[in-house]
Design brief:
The structure is a single chain. By secondary structure, the chain is of the alpha+beta class. Helices cover about 45% and strands about 15% of the residues. It is built from 6 helices and 6 strands; from the N terminus they run ααββββαβααβα. Strands 1-5-6-4-3-2 form a 6-stranded mixed sheet. Helix 2 (about 10-35) packs antiparallel against helix 6 (about 180-210). The longest helix is centred in the C-terminal third of the chain and has 31 residues, at about 180-210.
């Protein structure tokens, strides 16, 4: 046990803790990425694949309705004040034959999706297909309670009754994920874990067997 403790050092602790944090943050998304992706077009098919929490979704988004909520972030300062809010994206109702679904985009995509929403409205009125092209890759997750209430209010304004909304069940949200960044962080986490283990094993062997070099007092006398 004493030798095991000697195997640890500040560097080993740093490598393993940071690696654990990165792997904890990225492994769930890596697992999702490895699943066969569902296309947004498949969500429009009556016999299409089922969308569920943890689904990998990718492809062109053919239609969306006008956004029902926005997302923003701010920085809380040590004195209790906070910085101004920074917009980070919007939530749009997404067409899906299996229930209620939403799409959460980045702020950089808001202008494109607002244009697609306008064209979708015209499509519903005139039958003219949207021309705006927008593609996205992400994961499906349950919509939180607050956003679900906003979504239900939005759908109620479109003449959906409470019973109809209840029958459609818990809304899901397809949220944008940068899987390239996920894989990079996952690879860094694996590398740090390997380095941490190798450094621990090196220090452990030194603690058990020593460096293999003779101490000065053990060296033979030289005339």
């Amino acid at each position: 046990m004493k030798n095991i403790l000697r195997g640890f050092s500040r560097e080993v602790f740093f490598f393993l803790v940071f690696a654990g944090f990165l792997l904890y943050m990225t492994v769930p998304d890596v697992v999702i990425f490895l699943k066969p992706a569902i296309s947004f077009e498949e969500l429009l098919e009556e016999d299409g694949r089922t969308l569920e929490a943890g689904s990998h979704v990718s492809g062109r988004v053919p239609y969306v309705l006008e956004h029902f909520a926005s997302e923003s972030t701010y920085t809380q300062r040590s004195d209790g004040s906070r910085s101004g809010s920074r917009s980070t994206g919007r939530f749009y109702p997404l067409f899906w034959t299996g229930g209620l679904a939403a799409l959460k985009c980045r702020q950089a995509d808001v202008e494109t999706l607002d244009q697609l929403a306008e064209e979708t409205y015209l499509y519903l009125m005139t039958g003219e297909e949207p021309t705006t092209v927008f593609s996205m890759e992400g994961k499906a997750e349950p919509l939180n309670e607050k956003l679900t209430n906003y979504y239900r209010e939005y759908m109620a304004d479109m003449d959906f009754t409470a019973d109809e909304l209840d029958a459609l069940g818990q809304p899901l949200c397809v949220r944008y994920v940068n899987f390239t960044a996920v894989w990079v962080m996952f690879a860094i986490g694996v590398l740090l874990a390997v380095l941490g283990v190798l450094l621990f094993l090196r220090r452990y062997r030194l603690a058990v067997h020593g460096s293999g070099l003779q101490r000065a007092e053990d060296l033979p006398d030289v005339p």
